[in-house]
Every structure is written in structure tokens, then in C-alpha cells.
Amino acid sequence: xxxxxxxxxxxxxxxxxxxxxxxxxxxxxxxxxxxxxxxxxxxxxxxxxxxxxxxxxxxxxxxxxxxxxxxxxxxxxxxxxxxxxxxxxxxxxxxxxxxxxxxxxxxxxxxxxxxxxxxxxx
Length: 122
Fold this sequence. Notes:
This protein is of the alpha/beta class. 39% of the residues lie in helices and 20% in strands. The chain has one domain (5-119). The protein starts with a strand and ends with a strand.
């Protein structure tokens, strides 16, 4: 839990509170970057600062695959309603289950019932 989670603009800032309540360091992109910044800017920032990107955007996984990048790690949620009160428990469970993979470099995809991991590069 020593790696900070950088929450993408497409997710509620309420995730910061939930993640912190469960012992994770967390920050929302809106507090450190331009809300209109391209995904590449957020990825570069996360890589430079050793953050895990938490997103609802499928483009991050695609970017990692196309570039064969070894980081940053990305936690991607694939659900219709990505609010903390709807899937918070699933996300926390995935973070705990895949903590070592995320620290080393991975894409973790979470849906309403399960999570799967792809170690970077992919």
C-alpha cells in the first residue's frame, strides 16, 4: 500500500476518501493536473511519480499494449456505474489481491464480479 493511486478525471473524487479509509495513498488528477490533459500526460505523470493510475477509460490499457510499456501500472474498472458506493469493495479487494503486481507493473481490469491481471509489458 505504499504506492499512491492517481485517480483519473473520469472517476469521482469520492474515490480518494474511500481509498484512504482503506489505507491507500490516493490523489485525484484534478488536484495536481489539468482536467483537460491528454491521457498521455496523466500516464507520464504517473510513471514519473511511481503512481498507479485508477481509471474507467479503456484507452489506458490500449496505450500500454501499443507501446509495450513497463509502467505505470493501471487499475481499470469496467462497469456501468463506477461510483465508490457501488463497486468500492470490489476495487479494494482487487488492490489488495494484486498489490505486488501493481507495484511491479501491471494492468488490472476489474468488473462487478472479478478482476484479472496482465503483467507489463503486454
